[in-house]
Design brief:
Length: 359
Amino acid sequence: MEPRDLSDHSPYVPGRGVEEVARERGLDPDDLIKLSSNENPHGPSPAAVEAIREHADRVNQYPKSSHTDLTAKIAERWGVDDEQVWVSPGADGSIDYLSRAALEPGDEALVPSPGFAYYAMSTRYHHGEVTEYALTPDDGFAQDAETVLRAYGGERIVYVTSPHNPSGSTMPLDEVEAIADATAPETLVVVDEAYGEFADVDSAIPLVDERDDVAVLRTFSKAYGLAGLRIGYSVVPEAWGEAYARVNTPFAANELACRAALAALDDADHVEQSVETARWAREHIESELDAPTVDSAGNFVLAAVGDGERVAEAAQERGVIIRDCTSFGLPEHVRISTGTREETREAVDLLNETLADLE
Ligand code: PMP
């Protein structure tokens, strides 16, 4: 027995890890600065770590109330009903739950290109087809309804990423509304706000409550520093709430992750500090890096460096791990995640040396 034909399914390519690079280059992992996966350089909230410790010796039991407690807390925070919050293993899990709830075999999803790879992957896993709208470097990957609607052809899902990965550009809320208006009633507009905390623009979540065709993705992986736990959620229209029980994986998200997320939500100082650092660091990269950059609202900056693979490779030799954007279809760009102030300063200096050397 063989697996079915999976040749249309590309594996997800994550940013390179510290251990992997250190082993390969014979370096001490502590000497490396990892700015390739948009992680939180401050680590998780200490309160989240404490919550994990407190519950670690009870993981022999299936999850109990933590999941409903987390759902209720998120719902209260956004002023929506509990049923509208779909807790999931990362925002990735929510993408899967929405694919399952929205797509019949052969249905299409319209995704940004370049863009986050998992929209297309999940669509294909669920026997859907992928179409694309283009965002381009010429205008700083500007996002508006016209760009999306030009490519629109009745897809069941339209994905919007705001802030956009890998560029950091945002889609104004009135443009999201214009897309939803133009694509009603057959389309769900999914606004991915995985990096929403870092942006200066408002969340689209109030739109979810006003209409029946917008959903929003959020995660604890970035500003909350819980990427390793795989915990995120979507906020869905009221009428979709009932579908959750039919499409989620049993228990939907794990106990330690839910406990940690509950504690992290209460640690406002940690999130505030994380956001402040990211905003400082992206400005530092934008102003000090000797290469053209795209204005970013996220915890990363896209830079045009000529040959991204070569620059990323040479940067690794100097101890800085950044993301070569060839897999995003941007071979001339690298994406640099924001680190602590110290890491970011050091990384920018090392990257400038790298760029000068390669000239
Ligand atoms: N959306 C975007 C735009 C992302 O960049 C990521 C993570 N790289 C995700 C969603 C998924 O985040 P997670 O599954 O860790 O919550």
